[in-house]
Every structure is written in structure tokens, then in C-alpha cells.
Amino acid sequence: MSVRPSRQRGMRFTGCWTCKARKVRCDERPLACGNCEKRGIACGGYDIRLQWMSDPFAQPSTPTASSSQGRRRIMLDKSSGRRFRMQEINEFLSTIDKDAESMLSSRKGPFSTFPTKPGCQDLTETSQTAHQNHTSVSNRSVESPHDWECDEVDLDHHTPGMQLQALSPNSALPLIINTLDWSAVTTQVIDPAIVQPNTPADAEGCTDRQNTSPITASDNDNATESSPSVSYGYNVRDHSMAVVPMSPSPLPESISLPIQHIRSSLFGDTEADLLMHHYMIHVADVLQPILHTQNPYRRIYVPTALEGACIRASDHKMTNAKSHSALYHALLASAAYHLWNCDKAQRKYQEMGAEHRYRALHSLQAAVNSPTPGSDHQILLMAMLSLVSIGVMSGDDGDIMVHLGGIKQLRDSRRRWRIVSGETRQLNQISAFLALMARTTCFVISPSPWIGNYHELSYTEDAVIKSGSCFEFMYGITSNTAAAIQETCRLAEFLAQFDNQEEASIPDDLLAACEGLGDRLLSWTLESEKMASIPASDGVMLTIFKHQASAWHYAALVYYYRRIQRYDTSDLVQEIKLVTDHAHAAEDAKVTLKSNSTNIMAPITWPVFIASLNAAESQRDVCRAWWERIQHYGIANIQTQWDMVQRAWEREDEMQQKGFGTRDWTAVLGDLGTHIFPV
Asked: What's the count of helices (H) and strands (E) in the chain, helices before strands?
């Protein structure tokens, strides 16, 4: 009797995946089968496993397959199509994403994309939908492009028909920032392709339909980078517009900057997604000289802007939507300008920066004109500080003093507050330090006379500066050095009252205060600083900070010698050498980091800026090498400062050739008539 050949048992189509692979019966118990549990093996579960099939209608590869067996012969997890490596799949997806942005049809491997009819997509939901499902941020309804108003600038709107308008003469400024002169606030030329005078926007509280002054951008199609640009002065007090000619500034050298593409849309706008992602990943680190977990740009600014998106989705009538919008657009503008600085061929980023900058200014003005601007104190402070960052990124620092003045008035409205949150305290410290940096290059005479008893006077800013716990990782400086720079500015402003008088007429306690400041500067050592914010375990960051803190100290000493003791540049050779040596050493320390970290942690330029203006002719090459070395960070204000240093050198050489001798650097900057923000 012949033995019947055993037929290979096919894979079952019921049961868990483990039982299928073992070719045993499964009890199909929910979640995990009892069969696997008894044998102590992991159950594969009952999920459906999907796979790409190149041709589901192709004939089976085995010619002897019987059609009568049908689906019983299908072997799961066996693909007859081509298999791709993960690297190939990533390349396919990357190409598909790029083609999708260009609205092109594309097919790569098993993936494909095709264009659809363009439509208007909006982040915000209608109030009815928002109340039904206010927790969803990604699912947005489509609204008419006319559903939004200018004073409630939507966080995701990219509206080509937006019209720029002046303020209504009937709108009153609040008590906060009521004396701020916004006439100096300017925005760069906005391409007519982006902002067209099309449909007037109804700006509640900030525009008047019966009395509007639309701005139309002049035709700049034939303009070149070397030709002067025109910016529009935004005068809030006088409710008028002024055309202010501005000189172009040389641009930093282009660099390549890899940017990961965001495949999910948070704001309903791929442009906003790209810019916000770039701000979080790159700009937040570029603005700080030290990598740190307490980075306020990423830890405070970005979450607040994203919170504003949720607020707009849930209740678009909330008053703080305007201040959130100002912060949101300010962050996008900074990111756009940084992208443009990294690649000057991408002029679209400059246009994006100009547009978002205008929207930020417009939203900020609407916020301070709201009935209760004080309720948004922290958000307004962040928005104004972000506008300062725009000036640093764009290189157009003409508006920075205006924004710093607004910040001062906003902070003065709560100058008697003693109990504030840690975030507000940090924002106050940042504001005080930026105001100090602007003060170091603004040479004024103190309006008040010296009244003696200097050390008994109470200065609010002194307390803020001395308590600057974030200065170490925010600016690479210790709070003691920052306090010494501030005291140098104050004493120099008082001494300026006695410039044309005999030394005997200077009060003795003022002279004693100047001498005491010099003693403290000369007795400073890095070992005496606590450096609590930077962990000792982070060797690279600690090394970078030590070099930067030393550069700050010696630059503060140079600043003191020049403004208080009136040293000549020939007497400062050693101090200036120490500044440049430590500045170069800090950049050298970054080489030990990963390659993707070489374009982050831009140094604060104040130490080398002061050293360069006071450098002897033999030391200029070392300063020049440092300025050229840091151009790759993509911050236009670096190039602006370097241009000013070169102009000061040329001016000084010209004066020496005419036989006038060496002039003080403060007088040289005064002759050039330009205020520099050395950050």
C-alpha cells in the first residue's frame, strides 16, 4: 500500500500572526491568544499588515499554481514586487515632497503626487466649529478670505490682497507707550507681488474706513542690491506715512544651510510651517552664544506663539490674539531674514521677512491700542523684543532704539512690581541688557546733575543687571561685568558735564566712584565668578563661555579706560590683544562640536566691536580676521557693524593724514552720524 504523500499545510487566514507562522490552530482570544501565552512566546496579534504591491493583477510566479486553490495559496508577507532599502525610500519621499511644493506631478518608486486646484486654506475655525471641537488644531475649516480683519491678523494668513493703511486719527494711544515716537519705525520695501493695494482691510481700533491712507510699494522690479532702497516710516503719533531713504548695507557671504522639510502642516500654510520650523531649529540657537536648556527663544517665545494659534482657533475674539499675532509674525520675520542672509539668491525670503515684519508691527500697534493692553504684558514684552531681533537679523537697526524705548515704557508701567514669574524676570533682564548695549554707543550728557552719595542711590536697572542670572548663556557675560559696563556709562555721562571745566570742579565723590570702578575691574578674575548656569560637566560650553567672558571683561576694561580715564589707543594694545585672543579662542572651541553645530551660537559682537574701534593700525588685521570669520552665522547686523568699523578706520586714517592726530572713537562715530547696536 503506497503511502499518501503529505501535503504541506498552508497558512491559515484566521488567528494571530504567531500561530500562522507556526502553522498551528489559534484560539483567537482577543488581544493575545492563549496558545502563545501557554508556550511563553510573544503573540503577534491580529492587526492587518499592509504592503506595497507593484502589480496586484499579475499572474503568480509559479506556473504550476492551480486556480482552484484560489486565495488559499496566497502567502502573506511575501511580496513579488521590488523591495527598496530605507535610504531609497527616504530619497523617494524627499523628492516627492519637493515636487509637491512646486505643484508638479511626480512618481518615484511606489510613491506619487499630483497637483490639485489651489484653494484658500485657513487655520482658524468658525466660532461654532471651535466650540464643538476646540481641542483640534490640525483640522481647520475653510473660510472666506474676507472673514478676517486687519486688527486681528490671523496667525496663518498669507493674504496677497492685504492693504497697508495708516492709523485712524480717532484712535487714541493708551497710557502705556503713549509717548513713544514711532515715526522712526520703518519697514523694508514689500514687493507688490506680495502686498497689493487691493481690498481695504477693516482694522477695528486701528484703521478708519472713512479716512485711510493706503501705502503702495513703489515699483522695484529694476532695483538692484546696490541701489538705495526705500522704506516706509510708520508714524503712529501723527497718523501719517513718510518715505525715508535708506542706504544699503553690504551683505554677508552666502552659506549652505540644510533645512528639514516639515511634512505635516500646523498652521495650514507651508510657508509658515517652514519659517517656524527654521526658527525653532536654527534661529533660536543662532541668537545665543551658548547652547543651553533655558534658551528663552525656544522655551518661551515659540510656545507662546503656538499658544496664540490655539487661541485663534478656539476664540478669535480674545483680546490677546493681537499680541500673540505680533509675536508670531515677528518670529517668522526673523526666520525669513535669516534664510535670506544664508542664501542671497533666495530673494523670496527677504520679501517674506518684510511682509511678516509689517504684520508684526501692525498687530503690535493694535495690541497696545486695545482697551486692556496691560493684561498682555508678558506677550507684548516678547513681541517687542522679537522686533529687536528682526533688526539684528535684517541688519536694519534704525528701528531698534524705537522698540527699546517702547520696552522701557512697558516695563516702567510695572516698575513697582516686586513679585513676578521667572519668565517675566528673565524677559526684564534681557530687556535691561539690550538697553545697556544700545547705551554704550549712545554718547549723551546726563540730564541730571551729580548729587553725591553715589552708592546710596537706588537704581532699578542696576538691580536688574546685577541679578542677571541668564546673562551667562544668553550673552556670554557675567552679571558683574555687565554691571561694570553700566556703571561706566553712567559715570561717563556725568563726567561729560565737566568736559569744558577744570578737574578741580569735578565733585570728589564722583572721582572716587570712577576710581572705585577701575579698582573692581582690575581685581576681577574668572575664578571669582560662580558660573552657576553652565554645568561643569559640559566641557565644550564651559570653555566657550570662559573665553567669551574673558573677552567681555577686557573689552569692558578698554571701554572704561577710553571713556573714564581717556587713554590713547597706543596705551591699550595689551588689553585689545587679550580681547581678540579670547574671541578667536571661543570660535576655535566650536570646531570640536559636530559639523551641524558650526553655524549656530553666534557670538555677541560688543567686545570685538569696542576693541576694533580702539585698535592700533597693527592690530586691525586680527580684528578683520575675526569679523570675516563670523559672517557665516547669517546675521546681517554683524556685517553692519563690520562696515561701521571699516568706515571708522578710514575716517581715522583720513584725520591723521590731514595732521589732526588720533581722534576718540566716540567722536568718530558721532561724525559718521549712525547709531550702532553692537549685538
From this structure: 23, 5
Per-residue pLDDT tens digits for 594-647:
655 557 899 999 999 999 999 999 999 999 999 999 999 999 999 999 999 999
**What is residue 37's predicted lDDT score, i.e. its pLDDT?**
84
CA dist., res. 49 & res. 55, Å (int): 18
Q: What angle, rounded to 10 degrees, do the helices at 270-278 and 347-368 form?
A: 90
Which domains are present in the chain?
8-47 (4.10.240), 146-219+230-414 (no CATH)
455, three cell numbers: 552708592
Could you give the CA distance from residue 273 to residue 259 in angstroms, rounded to a whole number?
12
Check residues 585 and 156 and name the one with the higher pLDDT: 585
What burial class does residue 550 get, using C-beta atoms within 10 Å of its C-beta: 0-12 exposed, 13-18 middle, 19+ buried? Answer: buried
The rounded distance, in Å, linking the Cα atoms of 576 and 581 is 9
User: Three-class SS of residue 181?
Assistant: coil
DSSP state letters, 360-397: HHHHHHHHHTSS-GGGGHHHHHHHHHHHHHHHHHHS-G
- Residue 300 DSSP one-character state: I
| Per-residue model confidence (pLDDT) at position 530 | 82
In angstroms, the CA 111 to CA 91 distance is 11
For residue 114, count CB atoms less than 10 angstroms from its CB and return exposed for 0-12, middle for 13-18, buried for 19 or more.
exposed
φ, ψ of residue 143 in degrees (nearest 5): -115, 165
Residue found by looking up cell 519697514 in the block? 187
Total-model pTM: 0.65
Distance separating alpha carbons of residues 614 and 460, to the nearest angstrom: 31
Q: Cell 501692525 identifies what position?
A: 362
Backbone dihedral region for residue 678 (phi beyond 0: left; psi -120 to 50: alpha; all else: beta): beta
The SS3 call for residue 108 is strand
All three cell numbers of 125, joined, read: 475655525
Higher-scoring residue by pLDDT: 425, 174: 425
Residue positions counted in the chain: 679
Kindly report, residue by residue over 536-552, the tens digit of the pLDDT: 888 899 999 999 999 99
* Distance, CA of 259 to CA of 262 (rounded, Å): 9
Query: Cα-atom radius of gyration of the chain, to the nearest Å?
Result: 32
Helix, coil or strand: residue 186: strand
Q: What is the chain's mean pLDDT, rounded? A: 74
- For residue 594, give the amino acid letter: K
Res 519: pLDDT:
97
Which one, of 514, 557, 563, lies nearest residue 665 by Cα? 563
